[in-house]
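Task card 7
Instruction: Convert sequence to structure tokens.
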Amino acid sequence: MPTENVRAALAAVESGNVDAGFVYKTDANISSKVRVAFTVAVQEGPPIRYPVALNEGGKRQKRAAKFLTYLQSANARKTFERGGFIVKF
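Output:
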């Protein structure tokens, strides 16, 4: 059953509308209603990227730039890794 996005696939599995689904490990980890049955090795799957960009001319340019700097920090890396993300930057 195709779904619109990964969270919808997770909801379909949680509700029992489907027997299984492909979701990100980080999404599966937040659910107490699903069990991870199979994990695709990082090197075997496609790269998953979350790009970030600053909006030129935005009202909060300095705050946005500061946030972008934070996202590239060791503290942010630790937070992402605790959430199950593999950080490469």
